Amino acid sequence: MQCRVCDSTRLELAIDLGEQPWCNNFLTREQVGREPYYPLRVVHCQDCGTAQLDYTVKKEVMFGDHTYLSGVTTSLSDHFAQVAAEVDGRFFKAVPGKSVLDIGSNDGTQLKHFQKLGYDVLGVESSKTTAQIAGAAGVPTLNAFFNAETARALGRKFHAINAAGVF
What we know:
The chain has five helices and seven strands, in the order E-E-E-H-H-E-H-E-H-E-H-E. By secondary structure, the protein is of the alpha/beta class. The model has no long low-confidence stretch (mean pLDDT 93). It folds into two domains: 11-57, no CATH class; 70-162, Rossmann fold (3-Layer(aba) Sandwich). The two termini are 20 Å apart. The radius of gyration is 19 Å and the shape is globular. Helix 2 crosses helix 3 (109-116). Helix content is 29%, strand content 24%.
């Protein structure tokens, strides 16, 4: 393995927590005891000092069907409302046909605030269930991982692009 920051191979094990099941996952009775486990080890780069995990769980496992919904956190929704108002007020208040793309849009909470300000919105969300929740709430959402291929497939430009809480 190489350091994620400087590509050094001088990585030293700092903490080994063994094999752990994936978090943020509610299991059925039948799944308990049969869930996959993943190594959870922190290594330290001796060259640049970065602490990092030495194993990455596949994105499809991490984000393919996560259970967290942005809309359940009132303070986050309030923050998203402030972000939408600030972006609109500073840059797009008088722009006709204004649009915004939200990458990792979750349940559409951020985009709902942009909709209230007159924006044409589109979310891109990797979790199928979460994307369906957003769509059912009136927020157009594409169920996909955002990458260059997805960006090209959209076939359009946006006035603003948002990505909150994504890696």
